[in-house]
Amino acid sequence: LSGKPPVSPLKNFIAGGVGGACLLFAGHPLDTIKVRLQTQPRGTCNQYVLYSGAYDCFRKTVSKEGVLGLYKGMAAPLAGVAPMMAISFFGYGLGKQLQQPDPNTPLSYSQIYLAGMLAGVFTTVIVAPGERIKCLLQVQSTAGQLKYTGPMDCAVRLYKEQGIRSVYKGTVLTLIRDVPSNGLYFLTYEYVKNLLTPEGQSMNQLSTPRILLAGGTAGIFNWVIALPPDVLKSNFQTAAEGRYSGLWDVLRQLVQEEGMRGLYKGFNAVMLRAFPANAACFLGFEVALKLLNWLAPDW
């Protein structure tokens, strides 16, 4: 058996970008539904709520805005998701490379988790402003008034009104959401891939359905721990200035008004999206990586 090729953070970067584009096309419609459910005005028992659930939100969005309504605000994440996943897989590749001087020595699961956490730190730089802009654009059509014409207009106006801090509002929550969940994301993917690899075979020979299963499962586990901070982040980033004094205040108000269930708002939309979107992401990544290894084995 020839030795395994060393981990190439550069190849991971390019293949991650391909994976990110696949993730977005598969998952953005349910992301729009998730954000609209998370940020809709809170109704009391006898008050009318805008959407009763994921399917109701889907139905109303399509009937009011057409199918393209589900792809609202996609320009910002497309400009952000492909580079974000590229940076995520780059950070993961770098984390593995730093802990693995010899490519033939397998990494332990705790090392894989640490490499995944590094990916989460790397991505926050792009994710935090991108998500703030995305959430504001997705919510404005629900509110009925169009304050921003698009992602660039939104970014420029946030910067003009309150400087760079406003653009990066919600960064700490993004870190709380992404660092542990990214570790679990990559750990689950590697673990399930390992589990599905027949005795005596290499993980590189895994069939497409098995890669899809591993990627989809990783997406589900990622969101199980990422959703509560994500709900807090969506509320914090779309709230009027001065509505919350800080992170604890968002948590306190949300739990007070809706109980612990409020932290898992949009759960169905997230879980419906997590499997296909992340299955598509990892498949795109693996196919692109194989192609790169074939085209440029020495990179």
Automatic annotation (TrEMBL):
Ranges annotated as spanning the membrane: 69-92, 112-130
Location in or out of the cell: Mitochondrion membrane
GO cellular component terms, A-Z: mitochondrial membrane
Gene Ontology process terms (BP): carnitine transmembrane transport; mitochondrial transport
Entry GO MF terms: O-acyl-L-carnitine transmembrane transporter activity
Membrane topology recorded in Swiss-Prot or TrEMBL: Multi-pass membrane protein
Keywords: Membrane, Mitochondrion, Repeat, Transmembrane, Transmembrane helix, Transport
One of the Pfam families matching this protein, by short name: Mito_carr
Ranges for the Solcar repeats: 7-98, 107-195, 206-291
PROSITE patterns: SOLCAR (PS50920)
Membership in a protein family: Belongs to the mitochondrial carrier (TC 2.A.29) family.
PANTHER family assigned: MITOCHONDRIAL BASIC AMINO ACIDS TRANSPORTER-RELATED (PTHR45624), MITOCHONDRIAL CARNITINE_ACYLCARNITINE CARRIER PROTEIN ISOFORM X1 (PTHR45624:SF23)
Protein name: Mitochondrial carnitine/acylcarnitine carrier protein-like
Gene name of the encoded protein: si:dkey-150i13.2
